[in-house]
Amino acid sequence: MLTEIARAKLNLALHVRARRPDGYHELETLFAFVEQGDVLRLAPADTPRFRVTGPFAAALAGEGDNLVTRAAARFAESFGGGAHAIELEKHLPVASGIGGGSADAAAALRALARLHIVPLDDPGLFAIADALGSDVPACLLGKTAIGKGRGEQLQPVTGMPGTPVLLVNPGVAVSTAEVFRRWDGVDRGPLGGDPLAGRNDLEAPALAIAPVIGEVLAALAAQPGVTLARMSGSGATCFALFETVEACAAAAVAVARPGWWSAETRLV
Ligand SMILES: C[C@@](CO)(OP(=O)(O)O)[C@H](O)COP(=O)(O)OP(=O)(O)OC[C@H]1O[C@@H](n2ccc(N)nc2=O)[C@H](O)[C@@H]1O
Ligand SMILES: Nc1ncnc2c1ncn2[C@@H]1O[C@H](COP(=O)(O)OP(=O)(O)O)[C@@H](O)[C@H]1O
User: Fold this and answer.
1) Which UniProt keywords apply (predicted)?
2) Fewest CB within 10 angstroms: 2, 19, 41, 256, which?
3) For residue 160, what pLDDT is reported?
4) Are residues 149 and 207 in the same domain?
């Protein structure tokens, strides 16, 4: 039995530069990862088996087309390896801008690669990740990196490991495609040398769909010891970076609301 943590992805900054003819958008983003994540367990089996457990299992109950099973099918096509029993313990809210599904798919690819002795930097693994979704290559890499293109052109950069982070989701699922559709088409400029001085250009279109995101951002920005408060990805999860673990813990209590999910964690 192999265990992989599917760590939540954050976009510390996300600049949308252009709408492409293929329907995707050119991005410049700073990807980072936190300790908090889903847990994926995988073992060889006679027939393929997949089950989802954990606090957010119900949010995926009706969906036959899980990114994990798609990743496993693509891996088998490329590398063989037979059938597997996979358990996904779902701790991250679904469709929430922290790449839960993408992280799960990447964790499945990492576990399968370990089991079948495929190098983690095999170009075939990255090709599968790229075909599964724009965020999956970044999640496969799992390191702080600048992402360009639709997010798949990755350049690792020095991160801020250990930085305390509070994640807050107001309990509304937001469709990534719908948020991109509402982007106003204005290129507000490149990422620049200090991405933390940047923006998330999807905040405005996400707020138009889910105004409660504004409440989350205001609540986070008002906390003592906060160094950055921003939305991640297409939302609705927002994050705040803190100077100390104590400030992060105090903020978690201060911003708690009925129906809101939050997690105290750290950057990796
Ligand atoms: C916005 C981001 C930022 O990291 O994160 P999330 O909010 O999903 O976490 C990603 O670009 C999301 O990546 P991912 O969730 O893998 O998206 P995909 O499945 O590839 O695409 C879903 C839909 O989003 C839109 N899309 C996605 C990526 C991109 N660069 N431009 C787009 O326009 C397209 O309409 C696409 O059909
Ligand atoms: N293992 C999975 N976890 C979460 N969502 C999944 C998974 N497999 C497929 N999906 C689908 O992917 C969509 C986007 O989910 P997710 O990756 O959590 O959000 P986001 O891309 O906003 O970060 C969900 O609405 C769901 O339909």
Assistant:
1) ATP-binding, Isoprene biosynthesis, Kinase, Nucleotide-binding, Transferase
2) 256
3) 96
4) no
| Number of the ligand closest to the Cα of 11 | 1
Q: What CATH number does the domain containing 199 carry?
A: 3.30.70.890
| Domain span including residue 118 | 2-156
Angle in degrees, CA 263, 266, 267, rounded to 5: 125
Atom 19 in ligand 1: residue holding the nearest Cα? 133
Average pLDDT rounded to a whole number, residues 113-135: 97
Distances (CA, A) of 262 to 142, 150, 248, 251: 22, 28, 11, 10
245: confidence class by pLDDT, cuts 50, 70, 90: very high
Q: Which residues are catalytic?
A: 9, 135
**Joined tokens for residue 228:** 């950055």
Binding residues for ATP: 93-103
Mark whether 183 and 134 lie in a shared domain: no
CATH code for position 41: 3.30.230.10
Report the DSSP beta bridge partners of residue 164: 266
Quote the mean pLDDT of the chain: 96
